[in-house]
Amino acid sequence: MRTRRGICYPRDDACIDESVAKRRDFDRCNMGCRKRQRFSPVSDMFDVLPDDLVISILSKLSSSASCPSDFINVLIVCKRLHSFALQPLVLSKASPKLFAVKAEKWSESAHRFLKSCADAGNVEACYTLGMIRFYCLQNRGSGASFMAKAAISSHAPALYSLAVIQFNGSGGSKNDKDLRAGVALCARAAFLGHVDALRELGHCLQDGYGVRQNITEGRRFLVQANARELVAGLSSASVSNIGTRSWLTWTPHPIPHPNNRHPTVPGCPLLSDFGCNVPAPVAHPANQFLTEWFGSRDGFPGPGLRLCSHVGCGRPETRKHEFRRCSVCGAVNYCSRACQALDWKLRHKAECSPVERWLDEEDVGGEGMEEAIAES
Questions:
Q1: Which of 38, 102, 177, 335 has the fewest other C-beta atoms within 10 Å?
Q2: Can you give the residue ranges of the MYND-type domain (predicted)?
Q3: Residues 52 and 82 sit within 8 Å (Cβ to Cβ)
Q4: Domain enclosing residue 322, as ranges
């Protein structure tokens, strides 16, 4: 691989001799000039670096960047880094945190950069751009195609999002619902280990929604979703050195929640089937963007439209009465059964009007209603 000067990995002495010779020629030819150009041996050595080595370093940087500024600061160093940083090989390995732009800072340049990452084959960029175009920019066809591109590459969140679109008929009319397609997409995402897809598939099997009813199999998927949720919580706690002893007891004190609209939540985060208070899962950057985007619009995506009441979702309705309401209180609405089950454990169980009656039924030995599934 040749460098910009047409040489390949020169020796140190060759680099020094060449730079000295150039300096002498420069002094002879510009003796009478009033302004002299500065000699920079550092930039000279950088120009000697092979192109493939620079691209490899930038690819590693893009895959490990923790925020957009880590990568943008490299683009403004020089023209060579700017041109190499926008190579498809570098953009295809960009991490989700690299293009996790805040909704308030969304611009046409951010849109172009995300589009460049998606065109380079970055699966996360395809999913994020698809969600933004479908729900925020209301470009349904383009957004769905980008999500489908990510789903073809076995991207579990994209498969689940397409399943939610099929279940609700989002972007179309009520007659556009395709329950079987939604179950098939959900099953594929569940096979890849997506927790929400496992929970959604479990409720579909329990209720016979889009698939033949199988209560035992549905319950198995729900337990598996709780197990994966518990494992994810334990792994995140081990990385952040957070003690897990408090997970085994109920606490009456408020706990922090990652969503800004609900900074604190009373009681435990999520009570799993194993008796552990599992912390609420961190929302995907695409869902965080949706929450911020519509939160800046006071939570109203349009006339007569509503947002999903689960704080970590952010999906809006694309037509009136698209989402299901809680069949008991009617005060909340959800885009999916998985979001309703999560929000029930996290928040709504303490707010729904007949919660006292359910607690009484649990005390006398009834099964209780750990997850209230709303009807259309």
A1: 38
A2: 310-352
A3: no
A4: 285-350
pLDDT digits (tens, 9 = 90+) for 139-157: 999 999 999 999 999 999 9
Element (H, E) at 14: helix 12-29
Taking CA atoms, 207 is separated from 203, 234, 310, 343, in Å, by 6, 31, 21, 19
Residue 300 lies in a domain: yes
**pTM > 0.90:** no
DSSP character string of 108-162? HHHHHHHHHHHHTT-HHHHHHHHHIIIIIS--HHHHHHHHHHHHHTT-HHHHHHH
d(CA 360, CA 340): 22
Question: What is the total count of domains within the chain?
Answer: 1
* Cα atoms in the Cβ-side hemisphere of radius 13 Å centred on 206: 17
CB neighbours (10 Å) of residue 353? 11
Q: 175 to each of 24, 166, 178, 203, 321, how far by Cα in Å?
A: 80, 11, 8, 22, 13
